[in-house]
Write a structure and sequence with these properties.
- The chain has nine helices and 17 strands.
- By secondary structure, the chain is of the alpha+beta class.
- The strands form two sheets. A nine-stranded mixed sheet has the order 6-7-8-5-1-4-3-2-9.
Length: 379
């Protein structure tokens, strides 16, 4: 397993961020799911993730099973319980399938733990050293919004497939990747009036700085609204937008999420690609469903964003959104929820210089989400 990975191609120092907690990138994201074997097949078949490692009864784990998949720098861990009761079952019962661990790659997991605990973080796991024939890993962890956990993973002295306790998983079935590169950002949904609390947590406990904020004037439609602030660590490799509901005439997507997830949690992962047309085409061909964007969106989009490198027609055919900031433009598209509950989804994003998050697309995006909510009867 190569460890010279980053979450962004180019580091960018974020003004106001204190880098007492140097983060090298996103190490992995662990989801608790009802059936890890079938979920792994879905992420292989539909999303092009490659098999990496496995833990379960065959490796001496008696209470759970985990499959590790990777595509370029994106690593997913899918975990299911093997017995009734216990932490994993309780999480699935409360939330359905969803993100439990957002693991951050660090040089020193003990220092990361101590620095955050002394600043007010609630401990999830004191630093633990795990060893096998491939070396040693140190892991620690803290609580964040809802039941989401941040693990700190120190793996500079480890050369195994994933972590001690896992074995190499090398099945014959390996569908090709779809060109996904890294996690651009991960969005958390929190309850009414909780956004500032958790932004302050990331600022005070983890040294993040606020990149940008959006209020209900920026993110609203005729019916619903929400508020959002984007927090980033010092080198810009980790970005966490935090959303909360805002008053509207009907139930917003954030309220729907919190109702069905039963609390705060990770709403979506934005996955970066160098060619969004090829990536989205491959995903659609494999059955991934995306939000519908009306063709009328494209009538005036170039008047708003100016000249782009891509032909507009394939973007229109795929429903890809376009936005521009002072540093360039971006292309983005959002899936429908990928779970039975209307909770977690994915964003596919290609940055052509832009460092923003598609503010110009918010109205079109949220109207598309509202159309889905209306079909579900939850608007």
């Amino acid at each position: 397993m190569a460890t010279d990975k980053t979450s962004l191609k180019l580091d960018k120092t974020i003004p106001g961020a204190e880098d007492f907690l140097p983060l090298l990138g996103t190490d992995h994201v662990e989801l608790y799911v009802g059936n890890a074997k079938q979920a792994a097949h879905y992420y292989q078949s539909a999303w092009g993730f490659q098999p990496v490692a496995y833990a379960g009864l065959e490796t001496g784990v008696k209470d759970r099973v985990s499959y590790v998949l990777q595509q370029d720098k994106i690593r997913l861990v899918l975990t299911s319980p093997l017995k009734s009761g216990g932490e994993v079952n309780q999480h699935i019962d409360a939330h359905g399938d969803g993100v439990k661990m957002v693991a951050l790659w660090v040089d020193d997991a003990t220092k990361s733990y101590n620095e955050t605990i002394k600043r007010g973080a609630k401990s999830y796991m004191e630093p633990q050293k795990k060893e096998d024939k491939d070396g040693e890993v140190v892991i620690s962890g803290i609580h964040t919004y809802g039941e989401t956990i941040h693990l700190f993973v120190e793996r500079k002295n480890y050369n195994g497939a994933f972590l001690p306790g896992y074995k190499v998983w090398n099945p014959d079935y390996k569908p090709a990747s779809v060109g996904l590169k890294y996690i651009d950002h991960m969005v958390g949904n929190v309850g009414w009036n909780e956004m500032n609390k958790w932004c302050e947590f990331y600022a005070n406990v983890m040294g993040f700085a606020q990149l940008i904020s959006f209020d209900d004037e920026d993110i609203s439609t005729e019916y619903t609204a929400l508020m959002s602030k984007v927090m980033s660590n010092g080198n810009g490799r980790i970005k966490f937008p935090i959303n909360e509901p805002a008053d509207g005439r009907k139930k917003s997507q954030i309220e729907e999420y919190i109702e069905f997830y039963n609390g705060a949690g990770v709403q979506h992962m934005a996955l970066a690609t160098d060619n969004i047309i090829e990536t989205v085409t491959a995903l659609k061909n494999r059955g991934v469903e995306f939000l519908y964007v009306p063709e009328s969106y494209y009538d005036t989009v170039l008047d708003r964003v100016g000249e782009i490198d891509e032909d507009l027609e394939p973007l229109k055919q795929l429903g890809i959104l376009i936005d521009r900031d002072d540093e360039g433009y971006l292309l983005q598209l959002f899936t429908k929820p990928v779970l039975d509950r209307p909770t977690m989804f994915f964003e596919i994003i290609q940055r052509k210089g832009a460092q923003s998050f598609g503010k110009g697309n918010f109205k079109a995006l949220f109207e598309a989400i509202e159309r889905e909510q209306e079909m579900r009867g939850t608007l």
